[in-house]
Amino acid sequence: MFKNHLAISTSSLGQQLSHTLPEKIQAAASNGFSSIEIIYQEIVNYGASQIPPLTTHEAARSISELCSSANLKVLALNPFKNFEGHRSPLAERLDSARHWLEIAACLEAKFLQVPSQFDTANSSGDWDQMTQELRQLSELAASHSISIAFEAVAWGSYIDTWEESLRMVKDVDRSNFGLCLDSFHIAARLWGDCTTETGVREDGDIALQASLDRFVEMCPLDKIFYVQFSDGERVVPPLTPQHHFYQANVHSALTWSRNMRLFPLETELGGYFPVLAIGDAWLNRKGWKGVVSMEVFDWRMREEASRPEENAKRGIRSWTKFVAALETLKGIE
Questions:
Q1: Using one digit for the tens of pLDDT, what is the confidence trace for 307-318?
Q2: Contact 80, 100 (CB under 8 A)
Q3: Mind listing the pLDDT tens digit for each residue in 76-116?
Q4: Domain layout of the chain by residue ranges
Q5: Contact in structure between 25 and 310 (CB atoms under 8 Å)
Q6: Burial environment of residue 31 by CB neighbours within 10 A (0 to 12, 13 to 18, 19 or more)
Q7: What's the Rg (C-alpha) of the chain?
Q8: Burial (0-12, 13-18, 19+ Cβ within 10 Å), 249
Q9: CATH H superfamily, domain 6-331
């Protein structure tokens, strides 16, 4: 039986302003999650909703106390995006990082989650520059006793696979700089295609399997900080200019991610990603024993009636089903 500590992101518990952080914290804690990832904007929203309003630092400390009283740890603050290689002044970006790290420290979060650069028009793509800047970010984070969980996103401008993110982790070469792996990004980058009728790349199965085999063989477990699982909803009709989620200047995988990410194996809602193959590689074949987090962005959760308690139950049902399927695969292997 898998004994991974189970986390969930606040985005997976509701995406409506009435779905408050205190309600999400209680829902996560009462349904068996041991830690939570917190979206920065939700802290801001929480502070603004109090009477009198709280500063972001005060709001973070308040949320930390709520988590502690619910016996829930804060896994990460996220997403601190478009940092490395950006053309804006580095001093300004480091000031922003310092603020985020202060908030993470107020939360008593273990990690600051950093997605790979995707602002192509305003970034250089110079590897050495990105490495040096991420090294500075890591050193700044270390001064706050925070680690950086670096994530290759499927729409990344320069780093969009686990191999490239591992290369960056090795080049940054800091003990508090490691990987966040996300099943959605793996599948959306190598296997899925939301712009076609089939929803699958022509060589998707081969490309994904080859990548997973390389992962099992080559990725050091000590470079992984935590892993995230979610499924992808089949986009029907495909994501074209006629689709209501379509945005002309937004990468199709980013639009997909923001709107149609489900809990693993929610096939009844259109989930169809090969998330079991990814889970088998990560948890069975590689033997990942660390934190597993559920990160979902489901358009249905924008409805007020989609309450955090039910979404937390969705997450646990998904994990139970997922674990049972992985145990079966492990037995077959």
A1: 999 999 999 999
A2: yes
A3: 999 999 999 999 999 999 999 999 999 999 999 999 999 99
A4: 6-331
A5: no
A6: buried
A7: 19
A8: exposed
A9: Divalent-metal-dependent TIM barrel enzymes (3.20.20.150)
Which of these, 3, 316, 329, 7, lies nearest to 180 by C-alpha position?
7
- Tell me which amino acid residue 149 is: A
| CB atoms near residue 205 (< 10 Å) | 14
Q: How far is CA 156 from CA 9, 12, 140, 161, 259, in A?
A: 21, 22, 24, 9, 18
Phi-psi region of 159 (alpha: psi -120 to 50; beta: other; left: phi over 0): beta
One DSSP character per residue, 85-98 reads TBSS-HHHHHHHHH
H or E element in which residue 251 lies: none
- pLDDT digits over 9-38, tens only? 999 999 999 999 999 999 999 999 999 999
Mean pLDDT of the chain: 97
Neighbours of 62 (CB within 10 A): 19
Write down the pLDDT at residue 333: 63
Contacts of 1 (CB under 8 A, 6+ apart): 323, 327
Tokens of residue 333, six digits: 């292997």
Q: Return the structure tokens found at 22.
A: 């205190």
Q: What is the mean pLDDT of residues 46-63?
A: 97
User: 224 Cβ partners below 8 Å, 6+ apart?
Assistant: 178, 179, 181, 288, 290
Confidence of residue 2 (pLDDT cuts 50, 70, 90): confident
Report residue 198 CA to chain centroid gap: 26
Question: What is the reported pTM?
Answer: 0.96
Sign of the four-CA dihedral 221, 223, 229, 230: negative
pLDDT for the residue numbered 1: 66
